[in-house]
Amino acid sequence: MDPALVEAATERNEKHFESVSAKKFILERRVELEPGEAPEFQAELRRRRWGTLGSYPLPANIAVVKEFYANALRLEEGIAPFVSYVRGVRVPYDAQTINQFLGTTLRADEESEYNNYTTETMDPALVEVAICVPGRGFHKNRSQLPLHVKRRDLLPVVRIWSALVHANILPCSHVSDLHWSRSMLMYCIMTQRTVDLGGIICIEISGCANSAPGSALGHPSLITQLCQLAGVDVHSPPFEGPGRAIDSRYIFAYCQDRAPPNVPAPEPIHAAGPQEDIPMDEAPAPGPSLTIHQRLDAMEGRMDAFMQRQEGRMDAFMQQQESLHRGQMFILDAFRSFSLHSAPGHQFPSTADYYAYTGWPGDQAPFFGGDGAPEDGGAANAVEEARAADDDQAP
């Protein structure tokens, strides 16, 4: 390659690294289900030979992943696609490499059917039949084009798949709904069509590397392990992840249909004493009675609000747990580094360094909803407000 192009690419990658360093990561999830739990989901996972997809996520080396994404930026011609460089080591992330790592290489008689479907030609009605609760479907824009479908409107098994897809295949930070573009993959999964998993993931990683500054980065654990296979030392902190596992507790909280609450029978109405008659011309006109569908919609709205509050509490709790885990790993890494250094000048990290590294997210405020305002909302209320705003927006 022309040395001038190499120098220009290096300068461009250095500037891109500053942008990458400010981005957040979408952490992968592990599938931790016992035999007999979510049997339909586990059976399809085995049929597709995707078991490693749910078991590979380990703590990701953040510095390595950031350097990988900075050097995976490919703006000039002449650079091999789906290749990055980390600490001078060539790291391929093409479809064949990823499929070999995940054990998902298609057999000779298999061909990816996922590539046959596009958002422009796919019939939304077919997708709705495959992934949605009967009677539910996509929210549409004014042109009647599909936008997204709410998680509560998906079949329970599709909600489990959605959690795995949004973390390990097509990373997305907004998981309360399924976007139309991602529903193509969900349709193929639910109808048992062949999917080239490595081909999807390598294109997604390349897209993340060339994404806008405000977007998040996916596949940090996968990239860390690909770098390790290529010969990069990935054992130095900091580490992060993986995210919350897909286990029985997660499925119970987010992936099951919930029966309406048992409402006790009302107390018998006691006879009231005589009241003063109100002239008919002064009596207020009775309002229209609610239909059964309006009552069900109102009940569903209250249940959705309750689940959003519970999800906010759980997210805050998981952030605290992840912070505690980072703190424990930080301490262990400090002891290990100290044991490896014989120089007397090596010092333990300061308290300020420890707090800066663990990033404690704050305590969950006890106030949720209502007409008043909390005295001290903190970070937890910011999370809750952002979640409520996301729920009202498309996609």
Can you describe this structure?
The protein has 2 domains: 3-250, no CATH class; 291-392, no CATH class. Helix content is 47%, strand content 6%. The protein has helices at 3-21, 39-47, 51-55, 62-71, 95-102, 124-131, 156-169, 180-190, 197-209, 220-230, 248-254, 292-340, 351-358, 378-392; strands spanning 60-61, 83-86, 89-92, 139-140, 146-150, 177-179, 239-240. Strand 4 and strand 5 (146-150) form a beta hairpin. Helix 12 (292-340) packs across helix 14. The two termini are 43 Å apart. Mean pLDDT is 79; it is low at 1-8 and 365-395. Residues 46-233 form the Putative plant transposon protein domain.
Summed up, what is this model?
With 395 residues, the protein is mainly alpha-helical. It has helices at residues 3-21, 39-47, 51-55, 62-71, 95-102, 124-131, 156-169, 180-190, 197-209, 220-230, 248-254, 292-340, 351-358, 378-392, and strands spanning 60-61, 83-86, 89-92, 139-140, 146-150, 177-179, 239-240.
How does the SSE layout of this entry go?
Elements: H1 3-21, H2 39-47, H3 51-55, E1 60-61, H4 62-71, E2 83-86, E3 89-92, H5 95-102, H6 124-131, E4 139-140, E5 146-150, H7 156-169, E6 177-179, H8 180-190, H9 197-209, H10 220-230, E7 239-240, H11 248-254, H12 292-340, H13 351-358, H14 378-392
Antiparallel strand pairs: 1-7, 2-3, 4-5, 5-6
Protein name: Putative plant transposon protein domain-containing protein
Biased composition (Basic and acidic residues): 384-395
Region (Disordered): 365-395
